[in-house]
Amino acid sequence: LKMLQVQMQKLQEDNRTIKEENKTLHAEKPKRKQRANAHDELSVHEETISIYARKYGMMIEMFPSSDLLNKRLPDSPTPFDSTDRYATASTQESAFLDELYRHFPTLLHKVMESSYFSDLVMKSIPDARANEIKKLRGVAGDIFDLPSKYFTNTSYDRANVPEIQRLLGVMSSTNLAYKTFPPVLFPELKEDRSLKTVFGNWLLLARILKASLHGITSLHHASSGRGAHTNSMKWSVQQVMPGCIAWAAVLAIFLLSPDTEFSSAGIGKRSTISYKDLFFTYKKVLVTKWKTKRVVQIVTNIDHYIFKAAQLSALDSAVHEDFTNTIDHALAALDMESSDDGSETAADVTGPGTPTAA
DNA sequence: ACATTACAACCTGATTGTCG
DNA sequence: CGACAATCAGGTTGTAATGT
After folding, report:
1. FRET partner for A88 with CA separation of 20 to 30 A, picked from A25, A214, A226, A268?
2. pLDDT at res. A35
3. Annotated region Disordered: where (predicted)?
4. What is the pLDDT of residue A40?
5. Which nucleotides of C are covered by protein (CB under 7 A)?
6. How many Å apart are A260 CA and B12 C1'?
7. How far is the CA of A201 from the C1' of B15 (A)?
8. Full 3-state SS string of chain A
């Protein structure tokens, strides 16, 4: 009897502590309810924010830091496309905010300091990206002109495929040293230390962007006009921006890498590639060189491939490529016409603006 | 120190929605 | 209705917290 009493006492004690614990747990639960209420107030904007966040993640910034999203726009911000954007940490932040506030419509500006906004943006970006990656994996074979089996199975041993090693400039599968500017970014895979021709393989980048913006079927035949809205319609995109070219370059490398998933932290688990750093570097190069002849040329090519060629009548892909070659050559000949504002930054005006071979 | 559980991030297949 | 893309729900995987 004594033993039972002792046991009973102990059980009661346990029960009390459990009840206490339960109380604190319940005390924390209402927070979620409150959040749900706050959610209701702001939820009118949910869809709008989500759409713009998805676009933002692809066209502007792949890896925004969540605390910067809540900052107020400075009175006289550094313009997002200013060449001295990257001069100091504070100009970078200022330009980031300038770009952020230009991207999201004025209607949303008052909501942008809430954590509801940043949470939603931070959730939407990887979500949208996963969607694009899935689409791209299906057509990666066509994009790279390689067997599609390399890409459809995420854990295919890409590290040991010689063609892919060549694209990434990796010598052996054991020594995994990835470059910031791998050969795949250069025309005819010819690396150029001075970076004069970087992003010169515009066709690859254009294919990636076209598949993402106009749907994967747009790669093979001109859209027949029916079907659901594509990203480009929902976002009303008419031209490419530095951010999305960098986005395409990063995704090209990711698709070739042995990584099986694209973490939102921006580091490849297997490859240890820092996609975040790559994106930052690529965007920086593109923003600071945006007005140079070479970059203007590349951007014009990409814009034509994605936005002009898409509207022309149905052509099968072989004819289609001949056609883009023609455009390419014509543009190379006309060169100056494509950059009517003409102002080039001091650096990188050398070189005869050779046409990029396709 | 190791095993287990809980949870979040991500991917995928299935479903839903939209257009001509 | 057919074709297509967006979205949802469920499964998988990696990881931090917790238990043994």
Report:
1. A268
2. 36
3. 16-40, 338-358
4. 44
5. 2-7, 14-15
6. 13
7. 39
8. CHHHHHHHHHHHHHHHHHHHHHHHHHHHHHHHHHHHHHHHHHHHHHHHHHHHHHHHHHHCCCCCCHHHHCCCCCCCCCCCCCHHHHCCHHHHHHHHHHHHHHHCCHHHHCCCCCHHHHHHHHHHHHHHHHHHHHHHHHHHHHHHCCCCHHHHCCCCCHHHCHHHHHHHCCCCCCCCCCCCCCHHHCHHHCCCCCCCCCCCCHHHHHHHHHHHHHCHHHHCCCCCCCCCCCHHHHHCCCCCCHHHHHHHHHHHHHHHCCCCCCCCCCECCCCCCEHHHHHHHHHHHHHHCCCCHHHHHHHHHHHHHHHHHHHCCCCCHHHHHHHHHHHHHHHHHHHHHHCCCCCCCCCCCCCCCCCCCC
